[in-house]
């Protein structure tokens, strides 16, 4: 290759969604995330990345709970349910996280234990450190093909930009 841009390995394009589960802007972004999941299905790997913000006192616990939900096989459903109840999370804290798990048919006792024993803390810490290293300052932020798209100030046009990049990557892989 003549330029200095490293070649992206063949395979599915990856879209990282840096999110915080106590963030009203992330709840707004859910419509875009749902649309992207519906449009691309398994052709694009959509990954939730955690970026809990200090201003939201339950966001770190919520990130850990989301990891437990992914481990139990209902990660995105759990993320959507928690984001839909941001106000409940503000009021009830960790109890809301466990109640949401129970409502989705997950093992709520295991959620409670996971929040106590901190088994998912390293994943959340690693995501947060990586986010800071690549310049994530708020949520939601999308990263696809090395391009960071900040949705914390405005969601306007973000999904279209993500789709342009994903479509280009998929066409390049097909060609």
Can you tell me about this structure?
35% of the residues are buried. Helix content is 55%, strand content 11%. The protein is α+β, with helices and mostly antiparallel strands. Strand 1 (14-19), helix 1 (24-40) and strand 2 (45-50) form a beta-alpha-beta unit. The longest helix has 17 residues, at 24-40. The model is unreliable at 1-9 (pLDDT under 50). The radius of gyration is 17 Å and the shape is globular. It has a four-stranded mixed β-sheet with strand order 2-1-3-4, with helices on both faces. The protein has eight helices and four strands.
Mean pLDDT, rounded to whole units? 88
Count of strand segments? 4
Helix-strand sequence? EHEHHHHHHEEH
Largest sheet: 4 strands, mixed
Span from first to last CA?
17 Å
Globally, the shape reads globular
Q: What amount of the residues lies in strands?
A: 5-15%
pLDDT below 50 for ≥5 consecutive residues: which ranges? 1-9
Cα gyration radius (Å): 17 Å
Main sheet strand line-up = 2-1-3-4
Helix content: 55-70%
Number of helices: 8
Which class best fits the helix and strand makeup? alpha+beta
List keywords for this structure.
single chain; 175 residues; alpha+beta; 8 helices
Give a quick summary of the entry.
With 175 residues, this protein is of the alpha+beta class.
Write the layout of secondary structure elements.
Layout: E1 14-19, H1 24-40, E2 45-50, H2 59-71, H3 75-84, H4 86-92, H5 94-103, H6 108-117, H7 121-133, E3 141-144, E4 147-150, H8 158-174
Helix pairs in contact: 2-3, 2-5, 2-6, 4-5, 5-6
């Amino acid at each position: 290759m003549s330029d200095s841009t490293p070649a992206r390995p063949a395979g599915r394009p990856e879209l990282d969604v840096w999110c915080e589960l106590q963030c009203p802007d992330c709840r707004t972004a859910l419509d875009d995330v749902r649309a992207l999941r519906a449009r691309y299905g398994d052709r694009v790997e959509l990954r939730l990345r955690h970026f809990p913000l200090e201003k939201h006192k339950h966001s770190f616990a919520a990130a850990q709970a989301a990891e437990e939900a992914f481990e139990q096989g209902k990660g995105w459903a759990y993320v959507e349910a928690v984001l839909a109840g941001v106000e409940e999370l503000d009021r009830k804290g960790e109890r809301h996280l466990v109640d949401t798990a129970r409502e989705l048919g997950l093992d709520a006792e295991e959620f409670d234990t996971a929040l106590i024993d901190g088994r998912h803390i390293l994943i959340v810490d690693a995501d947060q450190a990586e986010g800071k290293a690549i310049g994530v300052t708020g949520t939601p932020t999308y990263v696809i093909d090395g391009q960071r798209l900040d949705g914390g100030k405005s969601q306007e046009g973000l999904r279209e930009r993500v789709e342009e990049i994903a479509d280009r990557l998929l066409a390049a892989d097909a060609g």
